[in-house]
Amino acid sequence: MFETIRVTGGRARLLERHVQRLAEGAQRLAIPLDIDELRTELLQFCQALGQGVAKLIVTRGTGQRGYALPQPCRPQRLLLGSLLPAYPAQHAECGIRLFPCDTRLAEQPRLAGVKHLNRLEQVLARAEWQDPAFAEGLMRDMSGRVIEGVFSNLFLITEGHLRTASLSRCGVAGVMRAEIMARAAGLALPVSECDISYSELLQADEVFVCNSLYGIWPVTGLAERVWSVGPLTRKLQTVVADLLSDS
């Protein structure tokens, strides 16, 4: 498993959501983790890093040839620090276009939501376009349902209702996705996780993508569909702005 954490002012943003996702993933993959120890390591590492991106990789550890789980299991952790990505400011201000990827996400409910290290589907999807006019790609499952971006989660807004894809079959349960749903509920904005068809996406009033490094990017184009940056997307950008500040 891995986590990619935004660090500003020596603080790990959305730390508890990252830790919770790790704990849930470790339980599902039967990897024994001392979550309190891991949290302490992250806090110390991020304080020393100051500003940038902390990437935590957790593996089951070494074992013999074959698929049997190693006994005893001695998990290994690797922490890496890097600079924050220099995303263009216009992505958040003016919106982005999505590339409709042909690569589909395989359906495996036992892994759905987990941010595991097998990202081959995302690698193949990202290789589909080189045109800088597209900042992100749209990924669907084998049945054509809208799931997420290549490196983001996706929301649509229809008649004031915020919707995001169900991740019961595949996809990554992003920490910014969870935070947006929680904060939207606090604003009395209706929120639901559900199956979303491609046609429903195209009929939405507003669309945006999100992740823990850049926050929210409005979507202004997909195939022949064009959107304006809508008022609820702008409001939600303001609501999560504190997670992107340097203070």
UniProtKB/TrEMBL annotation:
GO terms under cellular component: cytosol
GO biological process: 4-aminobenzoate biosynthetic process; folic acid biosynthetic process
EC number: 4.1.3.38
UniProt entry keywords in alphabetical sequence: Folate biosynthesis, Lyase, Pyridoxal phosphate
The protein's annotated pathway: Cofactor biosynthesis; tetrahydrofolate biosynthesis; 4-aminobenzoate from chorismate: step 2/2
Catalytic activity of the protein: 4-amino-4-deoxychorismate = 4-aminobenzoate + pyruvate + H(+)
Domain of life (superkingdom): Bacteria
Pfam families, sorted: Aminotran_4
Entry's family note: Belongs to the class-IV pyridoxal-phosphate-dependent aminotransferase family.
Subunit and interaction comment: Homodimer.
Protein name, entry field: Aminodeoxychorismate lyase
